[in-house]
Amino acid sequence: MDSPGHSAQYCNYTLMENDTKDLLCSIIIDKRMTDLKSTNMEKEGLIRGLRTLRENRVVVKELVTDASTTIAAMMMYFTYLNCRLHRCFCKRSGTYSWYKEKVPKTYTYVEQLLQDILHSVATRIEPLRAPVTLTPTDPRKIKRSISGITPPPTKFLMASKKSRIDEK
User: Fold this and answer.
1) What is d(CA 45, CA 55) in angstroms, rounded to the nearest whole number?
2) In the 8-state DSSP scheme, what is residue 77?
3) Which end of the chain has a smaller Cβ tally under 10 Å, C or N?
């Protein structure tokens, strides 16, 4: 691709299927195709690659890419084309802005989750307050504390605590 201080002449943009790792399309973009702007080559490669997939009737359900800001901005634009947008006026700046309509959440899984919890509690043989046995791979068996030093005894901590009230 392109990096600061370098001027890329070509960009190879490859699209692949994630599960099978099959290459679906490979596009080579020349800087001259993007008005001699090497920063636009990646975006142009993606656009041409998606167009090629669409022409070959390949359905794209998910797109995973690197942290390119031009690709992220382009995908944000396409995402907002497929939803309802609203505008609002900002008194402070005196300009209009827009926001995406929020879709209400349904939480369809909560009822099944509660049923599973109640079933687990009802069919449990040992009492709920029974001690928990740790599995051999439990991280608490490796190290009891995330601190890099051994903690001092609680009595020592209580004795060394200074109160702001007692200072007067």
Assistant:
1) 15
2) H
3) C
